[in-house]
Design goal:
single chain, 357 residues, alpha+beta, D-amino Acid Aminotransferase, Chain A, domain 1, D-amino Acid Aminotransferase, Chain A, domain 2, 2 domains, nine-stranded antiparallel sheet, nine-stranded mixed sheet, 7 helices, globular
Amino acid sequence: MSGVSLQFPITPNTDSHLSAINWDNLPFGKIFSDHMFVMEYADGAWQQGEILPFGPIAMHPAMSAIHYGQSIFEGMKAYRNDHNEVVLFRPELNARRFSESAARMCMPEIPEELFLAAVKQLVAQDAGWVTNKPGYALYIRPFMFATDEFVGIKPSDTYKFVIITSPVGAYYAEPVRVKIEEHYTRAAVGGVGRAKAAGNYGASLYPAKQAQQEGFHQLVWTDAKTHTFIEESGTMNIMFVINNTLITPSEDADTILRGTTKRTVLEVAASLGIPIEERPVTVAEIIEAAKNGTLQDVFGAGTAATIAPIAIIGYRDEKLTLPALETREISLKIKDFLDNIKSGAQPDTQHWIQKVC
């Protein structure tokens, strides 16, 4: 990071379209704020980053990311709390995961201090895009891709790190319907499932499309070898409540993306005295619990969705309806806890909130 200032030059966007935003009709991920952060990697080091007006990025037809898939990203959010402060929720975990993804994909890591400075200054520049409308946030998308102008299979020598932001409402407009996938695979042991690599999502599109044609929102991915163990669900980690115990697949294998929201849910549950089991979870035990009435709750945990209640689980030719949302005491309690910390309604004793100056 030698020679890189953490105070980034800014070229203001003189053509803001913030005033034209219809906050009551805001599609997720299609509207973008006025600025973006851009930083280049060359000659073995990160160069000086800058904040520019949001706009297209020029690329060479032989750019190696297009051909060989060296591309990673993160997802996080900025909120406006009850004190009219713009805040981030545990952004250091996103910075660490971004570095872990970069290392796995043979890309240069970004120091945590640099990553956080870029995020905070970009969000500060576009703070007007962070609304206090309940359920809304500014979605932050840091990403990095290889930029060598070379058609040859090797790690790139040059990269571009970019951050863009997008005002968003709820990712899911209704409780989620998921289908347990027993043929296609998201990730295999020894693969890149733990990295937030673009290719992981590209490979998931075809089986997800098939599930959507059957009336489901997402898939529940199972292990690649036997399809007997549950791993994660689409855009989220997945959590179950059986007999008042919160159960979620362990991350011992390298096939599950380590989620900030999932880790937070487990820490909140522990603080509330809720029993936790983080272990291998079989499809058979979840189906049995759903049928015998001991499965009290299933929900997804992720940055985009936060806490997303799951209403129906599809398994082979069955559709298993889960308990009514108002009966789900544990996920409702955890969601309220997280919402209250983000809004400033309760003290942040865990020091999870970072203010954007």
